[in-house]
Amino acid sequence: MAKKQSKSDYNAKNINVLKGLEAVRKRPAMYIGDVSERGLHHLVNEVVDNSIDEAMVGYCDKIEVTINKDGTVTVSDNGRGIPIDIHPIEKKSALEVVMTVLHAGGKFDKTSYKVSGGLHGVGVSVVNALSDWLKAEVMRDGKVYFQEYKKGIPLKPVKEIRKAKKGERGTTITFMPDNTIFKTTEFKFDTLAERMRELAYLNKTITIKIKDVRNGGEEQTFHFKGGLIEFVKYLDASRQSLHKTIYIEGEKDNTPVEIAFQYTDNYSENIFSYVNNINTHEGGTHLVGFKTALTRTLNNYAYKNNLIKEGRISLTGDDFREGLTGVISVKVAEPQFEGQTKTKLGNSETKSAVETLVGEKLAEFLEENPPVGRKIIEKCLRAAEAREAARKARDLARRKNALDSMNLPGKLADCSITDPEHCEIYIVEGDSAGGSAKQGRDRKFQAILPLRGKILNVEKAKLNKILENNEIKAIISAIGAGLGAEFDQARSRYGKVILMTDADVDGSHIRTLLLTFIYRHMKDLITSGKVYIAQPPLYKIKKGKEEFYAYDDAERDNILKRFKSNGKGEKVDVEEALEEGKEIKGVLISRYKGLGEMNPEQLWETTMNPETRTVLQVTLESAAAADKIFETLMGDDVEPRKAFIEKHAKYANLDI
Question: Which of 5, 160, 170, 408 is deepest in the core (most CB within 10 A)?
Answer without folding.
Answer: 170
